[in-house]
Amino acid sequence: MALPLVTFLLLGIGWRNAFVVLGLIGVLWAVGWHLWYRDSPAEHPGVSKAELRLINAKEDRQERVTPIAWKEILREPNLWAILVMYFTYGYTGYIYITWFPSYLLEARRLGPLMAGVLSAMPPALALLAKPLGGWWSDRLTARRGLLVGRRVVGMVGFGLGAMAVLPGILVADAYLAVLFLAVADAGAALAHAVCFAVCVDIAQKRAGTISALMLTMGSVGNVVSALAFGGFVQYTGSWTPPFLIAMAANLAGCLLWLKIDPRKQLV
């Protein structure tokens, strides 16, 4: 909902005041977080004595965590397949947050209000696709095993993310273009939950560490996408080449799932 909200603010109160409103929302969130968050559950008024006893008992039962064997872990091809796969996810997904409204304005000649409203369609469909992908993976895993349950959802999601781009940029109707490109974003999002599931599969107690590495690669993809997409548009004078590169990135992410094996645990 952020893109339509920002559009309405820009049209209603101007870009300077829009920055002020968005900044105030961030301040209010920070204040609420400060009032609610505590470093320890024992300090939080919302945690009951029974919950606190359960937390403490669980912490007492936890095994001593050994240091991470980074040299061994970073030699694992399985890990690098996951990291590069998520880089492609970050690269393509960020396009629909940063450049998609500009694409609708400049390439599809939509008005600012309509572009702002329709730019919410890709993240809206992605929001629906993410839990669907997790549900599908669990069902498939229960029937066909862990490898099929993770790999099929990942490949179908990224594959759909690649295939839907081409009709999205070639179709003449602007509204159909939005629909196809929203499906492309939702396709990759279908595999989002499975990306984190494989981190749990291969790392177990180190799932948080591996997930953090994966998210870092996704953030690198975000940064590269924000810079490269605009650079390709400026260099080529067309919106088609950068979308084709995004399609190739999704295709690469799809093929990388053939190298990801959730049954192989890290050292």
Concise account of the structure shown:
This protein is mainly α.
Per-chain topology:
Elements: H1 2-36, H2 49-61, H3 70-73, H4 77-98, H5 100-106, H6 112-118, H7 121-144, H8 146-163, H9 165-170, H10 174-190, H11 192-203, H12 207-236, H13 240-256
Task: Name a few traits of the molecule.
267 residues, mainly alpha, Growth Hormone, Chain: A, 2 domains, 13 helices, globular
In CATH, what is the homologous superfamily of the largest domain? MFS general substrate transporter like domains
Proportion of residues in extended strands: under 5%
From N to C, what is the helix and strand string? HHHHHHHHHHHHH
- Rg estimate, integer Å: 21 Å
Kindly provide the name of the CATH class of the largest domain. Mainly Alpha
Query: Number of helical runs?
Result: 13
Mean pLDDT: 89
Shape: globular
Distance between the termini: 42 Å
Number of β-strand runs: 0
**Annotated CATH architecture of the largest domain:** Up-down Bundle
What is the helix fraction of residues, given as a range?
Answer: over 70%
Describe this structure in words.
The protein has 267 residues and is mainly α. The chain folds into 2 domains: 1-56, no CATH class; 69-256, MFS general substrate transporter like domains (Growth Hormone, Chain: A), CATH 1.20.1250.20. Helices cover 79% and strands 0% of the residues. Helix 4 packs antiparallel against helix 13, helix 5 (100-106) runs antiparallel to helix 6 and helix 8 packs antiparallel against helix 13 (240-256). The longest helix is centred in the first third of the chain and has 35 residues, at 2-36. It is globular, with a radius of gyration of 21 Å.
